[in-house]
Amino acid sequence: MQWQPDWGLRGRMGLTMLLLGLLYVGFIAALAVSGINLLGIVLILGLFSFGQFFFSDKLALRSMGARTVSEDEYPELHATVGRLAQQADVPKPEVAVADSQVPNAFATGRSQSKATVAVTTGIMQTLDQEELEGVLAHELAHIKNRDVMVMTIASFLSTIAFMIVRWGWLFSGGRGGRGGNQAPIWVAILVSLVVWIVSFVLIRALSRYREYAADRGGAIITGRPSALASALMKISGRMDRIPQEDLREQAEMNAFFIIPISKGFVGRLFKTHPATEKRVERLREMEREIESA
């Protein structure tokens, strides 16, 4: 099987970015109409955008407690990532490891040449070599499809809107605060709430589809869909045995993981991934296609 562009994924990424772009413009306009200085809004959001684009990968790694590792520290892991990256025809990404019992992996970065693949110590202990290769190929497929970059950019607006919803009341003078008409602040909070909900739903819808695309891409890279299917089942089954506090700490990164953590506020509110059983069935169908070819 050969790598084919996933036009369904590309179309969804384009539509998501277009809708989020329109939402972004409407967000700025609503804040300006509510009485907040337009120049200040543009300047602050511009600085946040710059930071999000250039430093989001580092923030994602830090939130997971992951650090980039050298070839001397993890020679086999680096060798595997390098070989699979060559098979996927993408530059070899940075390699990071998180000291965590949670068996998971994710990719982050703003481009194919500025990307990082991170794995936990838990996943390296849980999977055999073929299964780990399937997971790493899945993450490389995210990089090749460029959906990591789109998710990084798309999550920015949702993050800013959520921050205003959560902390905007502080600028109203607090509960029962004095200081004149506070209506513009509450209008900004209400608009931010709407923006956060809409962007949240859009990101989740894209996230679910991109997992199917990365499963297919990862299976094509290795030529062994069954290895990835086995890995998904192992990781999913292991989640129930992980301490609750460990799951809560990492649940907010669900959209980036190969298998979502079902615990925590975000995990309960909206699923970021399709059901593992459906993903495994599609991979088994691919395996049958390869065997019959």
UniProtKB/TrEMBL annotation:
The gene is htpX. The chain crosses the membrane at residues 12-32, 38-55, 148-171, 183-203. This is Protease HtpX homolog. Its EC number is 3.4.24.-. One of its GO terms (molecular function) is metalloendopeptidase activity. CDD domains: M48B_HtpX_like (cd07327). Its main location: membrane. It is found in: Cell membrane. PANTHER family: PROTEASE HTPX, PROTEASE HTPX HOMOLOG. Its cofactor is Zn(2+). Belongs to the peptidase M48B family. Keywords: Cell membrane, Hydrolase, Membrane, Metal-binding, Metalloprotease, Protease, Transmembrane, Transmembrane helix, Zinc. HAMAP family: Pept_M48_protease_HtpX. It is a multi-pass membrane protein. Zn(2+) binds at H138, H142, E211. Binds 1 zinc ion per subunit. NCBIfam families: PRK02391.1. Residues 75-286 form the Peptidase M48 domain.
